[in-house]
Design brief:
The structure is a single chain. This protein is an all-alpha fold. It has a single domain, classed as ADP-ribosylglycohydrolase fold. About 55% of the residues lie in helices and about 0% in strands. The protein starts with 6 loop residues before the first helix and ends with a helix.
Length: about 325
């Protein structure tokens, strides 16, 4: 008699619920990004009067509805590297970031756009030959959300890893562009939430358990000094806040809080992602992070079909997601 398959092997078999959720995660990032990109920078008050309900053209670039920006491009660079190599290789990820700038690799229309200042400077250092481990900005004023927005492929790839191993991977990938402990910690917390979602926890329980795990992991320097910046999440107050106390700027802590607040407040993909985008401010990144988490929670099947049909390069994103799920299946139980 052949041995029974491991639980992980059954979970991530081709066509399984896990594969649907991986597709949902990557497509969800792109959908949230595409919904938010046309209104990036608009104040919340404007979007309260005229909320986003569907894809819009990106008028500043003359791009059609369904166009996404750097959030999705860099997410797909990471996802493609993990799925093709079957391991985390910082040099390869860095090379793909450079290709994005130089060649338009994983851009929606052949040209990189939407890049933030900190990311631009770090990729310039990578192009100049600075090693990946030394390219990221370390200053406190370099805590934008540019590494948080692209981190979701990591908890998929490391879904069965020890939480400490997962957050260490998140720190290393964040540091390619954003090396300050606060940005690294934000990426680590997001990965812990996503890992819990993949363990079938509901969003609020996933976030609360991640907060408890983070409190343990981040008890020592240099992260202990950063915990006060995450107090609303770590101490459980975030979920009780009204919308007017949830911020949606490009600051990494704001994006983490806003995306998790939306995920835990609403119960379907469309409501989560539209609420995130309509918070205003850095709408594309809040939408991308919230959309990725919502897609991971409920799968591609929960994303409205009209958005998927209009989404630029949707089929290519699906193919990478399928490859990432298969690679994860092969190395499950490592």
């Amino acid at each position: 008699m052949s041995p029974e398959p491991k639980a992980d092997e059954g979970l991530i078999a081709a066509g399984s619920r896990f594969a649907d959720r991986v597709r949902g995660a990557l497509l969800g990032v792109a959908v949230g990004d595409a919904l938010g990109t046309p209104v990036e920078g608009l104040p919340r008050a404007v979007l309260q009067r005229q909320p986003v309900r569907d894809f819009l053209p990106v008028s500043r670039c003359n791009y059609p509805p369904g166009t996404w920006s750097d959030d999705t491009s860099l997410t797909m660079c990471l996802a493609s590297s993990l799925s093709e190599l079957g391991r985390l290789d910082l040099k390869d990820v860095a090379c793909r970031f450079v290709r994005w700038v130089e060649e338009g690799y994983w851009s929606p229309h052949g040209v990189a756009f939407g890049m933030g200042r900190t990311t631009r400077q770090a990729i310039s250092r990578l192009r100049a030959g600075v090693p990946p481990e030394g390219a990221g900005a370390k200053g406190e004023w370099s805590n934008g959300n540019g590494s948080l927005m692209r981190t979701l492929p990591l908890p998929v790839f490391f879904h069965d890893a020890d939480p400490q191993e997962l957050v260490q991977a998140a720190h290393r990938v964040s540091a390619l562009t954003h090396a300050h402990p606060r940005s690294q910690m934000a990426c680590g917390i997001l990965c812990l939430v996503a890992q819990n979602l993949l363990s079938a926890l509901e969003p609020l329980a996933a976030a609360q358990q991640a907060a408890a795990t983070a409190a343990r992991i981040y008890a020592s320097p240099p992260f202990a000094e950063e915990r006060r910046h995450f107090a609303r999440l770590l101490e459980g107050d975030l979920w009780k806040l009204p919308a007017e106390q949830v911020h949606s700027s490009g600051y990494v802590v704001h994006t983490l809080e806003a995306s998790l607040w939306c995920l835990c407040k609403y119960e379907d993909f469309a409501s989560v992602v539209l609420s995130a985008v309509n918070l205003g401010g850095d709408a594309d990144t809040t939408g991308a992070v919230a959309g990725g988490l919502a897609g991971l929670t409920w799968g591609e099947s929960a994303i409205p079909g009209q958005w998927l049909r209009c989404l630029v390069r949707a089929e290519e994103i699906r193919r990478v997601a399928a490859s990432l799920a298969k690679v994860t299946a092969r190395i499950a139980g490592r």
